[in-house]
């Protein structure tokens, strides 16, 4: 595992399980992002996962909206994340939720897009 369980948050939404990691940790490659809001306080979303049995039913979007509310309550102004370039469902969801691509990084699995949204 490459993240600790204590950082994971789990939410049960109408009997559908989604999991995400939300913190202020990020890889050094994030420095290559052309962040549109560099002077704002931010959280980073890692590992947004929806049970495969319930994917493509809006659970990811609902979870993202809950995360955005949580981040606002925590006093942060911006959310940053990275998304695998070969995950069209996630990319479409983030774009519909007004996340903007601000860069690209190469990791072990391949190309990832850096994305950001000011709340």
TrEMBL record:
**By its UniProt entry, which Pfam families does this protein fall under?**
Acetyltransf_1
Q: Which residues form a coiled coil?
A: none
Among the GO molecular function terms of this UniProt record, one is: acyltransferase activity, transferring groups other than amino-acyl groups
Spell out the Gene3D superfamilies in the cross-references. 3.40.630.30
Q: Which domain of life is it from?
A: Bacteria
Q: Where is the N-acetyltransferase domain?
A: 1-119
Question: DNA-binding among the record's keywords?
Answer: no
Keyword annotations of the record: Acyltransferase, Transferase
Protein's name in the database: Acetyltransferase (GNAT) family protein
Species for this entry: Fontibacillus panacisegetis
């Amino acid at each position: 595992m490459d993240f600790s369980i204590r950082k994971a948050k789990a939410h049960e939404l109408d009997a559908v399980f989604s999991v995400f990691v939300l913190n202020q940790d990020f890889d050094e490659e994030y420095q290559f992002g052309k962040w549109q809001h560099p002077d704002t306080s931010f959280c980073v979303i890692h590992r947004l996962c929806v049970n495969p049995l319930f994917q493509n039913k809006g659970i990811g979007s609902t979870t993202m909206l809950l995360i955005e509310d949580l981040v606002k309550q925590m006093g942060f102004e911006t959310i940053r994340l990275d998304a695998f370039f070969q995950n069209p469902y996630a990319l479409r969801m983030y774009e519909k939720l007004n996340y903007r691509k601000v860069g690209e990084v190469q990791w072990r699995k391949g190309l990832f897009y850096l994305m950001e949204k000011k709340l």
